[in-house]
Amino acid sequence: MDVRVVTTVFGALILLGIVEMLRRRRLREKYAVLWLITCIPIIPLAVFPSALDHLSTAVGVRNGVSLVLFLAIVFLLALSMHLSWEVSTLEEETRTLAEEIALLRLELRGDTPRETVEGGP
């Protein structure tokens, strides 16, 4: 089977998968945009592989495959950093919520007066 056909079919399947995940609300829009920006160029470049060579020549990269690998590494690094930032933010929010729940439980049990919890000693 031709590589162009496989790449085109693979790109179309990924694109359909992203759209379906968006439709079912399994993927948030802000993440879908990242994947759509990545996926949409795959199909035209698979159909017209000479465009990749022209693009790599314009950028100054000797081989089109090297350009794709470089862009993939940059994209994955940026995505990893973004997801790390998201996890850090969620971790901080989870810690704050756990502390607030613990303080509310103490208040409900009557162990700690409200003035002490909110105003401090």
Question: How would you characterize the overall build of this protein?
Answer:
This protein has 121 residues and is mostly helical. It is built from 6 helices and no strands. The protein has helices at residues 3-23, 29-39, 42-47, 49-59, 64-109, 114-119. Helix 1 packs antiparallel against helix 2 and helix 4 crosses helix 5. The N and C termini lie far apart (75 Å).
Please outline what is shown here.
The protein is an all-alpha fold.
Q: Which descriptor suits the 3D outline?
A: elongated
Output the number of helix runs.
6
Q: Which spans of ≥5 residues are poorly predicted at pLDDT below 50?
A: none
What's the β-strand tally? 0
- How does the major sheet shape up? none
Write the element-wise H/E pattern from the N-terminal end onward: HHHHHH
What is the quaternary state of this protein?
single chain
Strand percent estimate: under 5%
Q: Rg to the nearest angstrom?
A: 24 Å
